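[Discussion] Sanity-checking designs against the backbone

I'm trying to build intuition for which residues belong where. Below is a structure token string of 195 positions. I'd appreciate it if someone posts a full sequence so I can compare it with mine line by line.
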């Protein structure tokens, strides 16, 4: 049965969220989710990179690697495409959005090693998605990642002024909140699941 791209898009945001279902992309999620504005900006950058790299990786995989029986090179090729594209995005942000560039700091180049981006490219191949389904999945995954990091930033800003036990400050409370958010998103899993 072929899944409708809208179903894949919706599921990638809510029921199969890269962070809250697969726990991919946790490094920057924990490190950058202190302020809503910064989190949203990083989420936009991740969504942008996901959207374009998935298309490029899909085309390279199906038009070059498969016909030449070089499927085993997909990891290397996908990582090269992601790293190159992130470098391009970093140069554009540095040139035209200097404030955002300094706000994101070291986390902008870390998009390259954000395993959610590689995960999306691999999931679209493993699940045998068409190009349209892959685009829907990648954009939905980016928006789901953005939703999760912005929600986390909002929660962290709210609890910043509250007393928290010393051992739970920082990453400790962030991981606990992430677990609670993941449980909340499980409630959506009855609506639609993609495998």
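Best answer:
Here's mine. Compare freely.
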């Amino acid at each position: 049965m072929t899944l409708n791209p809208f179903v894949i898009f919706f599921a990638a945001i809510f029921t199969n969220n890269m962070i809250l279902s697969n726990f991919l992309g946790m490094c920057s999620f924990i490190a950058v989710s202190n302020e809503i504005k910064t989190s949203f900006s990083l989420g936009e950058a991740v969504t942008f990179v996901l959207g374009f790299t998935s298309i490029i990786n899909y085309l390279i995989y199906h038009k070059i690697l498969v016909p030449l029986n070089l499927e085993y090179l997909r990891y290397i090729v996908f990582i090269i495409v992601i790293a190159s594209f992130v470098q391009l995005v970093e140069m554009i942000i540095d040139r035209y959005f200097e404030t955002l560039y300094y706000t994101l700091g070291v986390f902008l180049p870390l998009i390259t090693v954000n395993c959610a981006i590689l995960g999306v490219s691999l999931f679209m191949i493993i699940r045998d998605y068409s190009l349209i389904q892959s685009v829907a999945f990648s954009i939905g995954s980016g928006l789901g990642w953005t939703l999760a990091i912005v929600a986390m930033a909002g929660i962290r800003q709210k609890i910043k002024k509250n007393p928290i036990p010393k051992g739970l400050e920082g990453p400790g409370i962030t991981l606990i909140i992430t677990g609670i958010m993941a449980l909340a998103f499980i409630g959506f899993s009855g609506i639609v699941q993609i495998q």
